[in-house]
Specification:
- Helices cover 36% and strands 15% of the residues.
- The chain is of the alpha+beta class.
- The strands form 2 sheets. Strands 1-2-3-4 form a 4-stranded antiparallel β-sheet.
- The N terminus and C terminus are likely disordered.
């Protein structure tokens, strides 16, 4: 991790570093770097004597070996991350217990550095005045205070997120990936106590394309099935439309189930096709955004949750371009109830009612 703030010897911020932190500047730099790395074929087009070309190939093989070492470096970093995750675990558990109200922190735990500990009488009086249990709305407040998550969250998601107790990250034993666990209290919306999102990663350079290796890369993600209670699925909505049958004095009501914008679409990520070459730009953008959101939750939200709750975090900007807020699996198109051909239909059409018009002969 690198610090988000760099200072010169006189305490002033370095402008060049701040410029690099700008998402647009960073995107431009990444595009330039990408252009540099894809010109691997230029070397073969150089007019080199055979003996020089042989030496160039020898250095390429050396470079391949260094790339393999670099890949192993990332694997060792991942092992170190797992080791430290075990040390963070008890602290995160304590945090979750205080948030949920399962335990009450001791008076000494409630004193910030530089503050004086309250007397027993003051503490007792505070406890008498406190009616709330734990920290109400802890995680839903974090969602609202975080740009990336706020864009994904809809008003109908908030009552569900009120029951969110904790977010954890775990690491599979023989994988470079990680699993996000969203722990919920019993609620009126679904049966599940834990919703999971698994990210699959690899750190293996391709010896036929070593130039493309740039550290661990995402190879897919897997969500989970949410067991919604009847009529409580916020990721879908039912739309009814009347149709008049041509040439007949009848109308019918068509009921269609379509996707609804919701944070909980996060648990239904797009599938990675078996053939990587069939990944188009739109799917690639969805997969990239999905991974960035997962990384953001893993690297910032979980370890720094309290700062997001109090809104003291200054680097709240997302790592994604400002114009890509619609890449969160939520369908942003409006549904016109009078349009029959809707691409967002996720269930079969069902005729819920047939109404016959009475023909009266005069």
């Amino acid at each position: 991790m690198t610090s988000t703030e760099k200072k010169s010897t006189d305490g002033e911020e370095i402008d060049n570093f701040n410029a690099i932190q700008d998402p647009n500047t960073l995107a431009a730099l990444q595009e330039k770097l990408g252009q540099m790395t894809i010109k691997k074929s230029d070397q073969d087009e150089l007019d080199l004597p055979p003996e020089v070309r042989r030496r160039v190939n020898a250095i390429k093989n050396i470079q391949l070996e260094t790339t393999k070492i670099e890949a192993d470096f990332f694997k060792q970093v991942h092992k170190l991350e797992i080791e430290y995750a075990a040390r963070y675990g008890p602290l995160y558990k304590r945090r979750a217990q205080i948030v949920s109200g399962e335990v009450e922190p001791s008076p000494s735990e409630c004193v910030m550095p530089g503050e004086e500990e309250k007397s027993d009488n003051d503490t007792a009086q505070d406890n008498d005045n406190e009616k709330a249990k734990g920290i109400p709305g802890f995680w839903v407040t974090i969602f609202k205070n975080t740009e990336i998550l706020a864009e994904m969250t809809q008003p109908h998601d908030e009552p569900i997120l009120e029951s969110l107790l904790d977010i954890n990250v775990t690491f599979p034993g023989n994988s470079m990936g990680f699993v996000l666990e969203f722990v919920f209290a019993e609620n009126e919306f679904f049966e599940d106590k834990v919703l999971t999102k698994t990210y699959h990663m690899k750190s293996e350079p391709d010896e036929f394309d070593p130039v493309a290796f740039d550290g661990p890369e995402i190879i897919g993600s897997t969500g989970c099935t949410i067991n919604w209670k009847k009529g409580k699925n916020v990721t879908q909505k039912i739309v009814k439309k009347k149709q008049r049958m041509r040439g007949k004095g009848q109308t019918r009501v068509i009921q269609k189930t379509i996707k609804e914008d919701s944070f909980f679409n996060f648990f239904s990520p797009p599938a990675m096709p078996d053939d990587e070459e069939s990944v188009d730009e739109e799917l690639e953008a969805l997969l990239t955004t999905d991974f960035e959101i997962g990384q953001y939750i893993r690297e910032r939200i979980i370890p720094k949750a309290i700062w997001y709750f109090t809104n003291e975090v200054t680097d709240i900007e997302s790592d994604m371009d400002d114009g890509e807020s619609d890449e969160d699996y939520s369908d942003t198109s409006d549904y016109d109830e009078e349009v029959e051909n809707n691409e967002n239909i996720v269930a079969n059409e069902t005729v819920t009612d047939v109404q016959k018009e009475e023909c009266k002969q005069q």
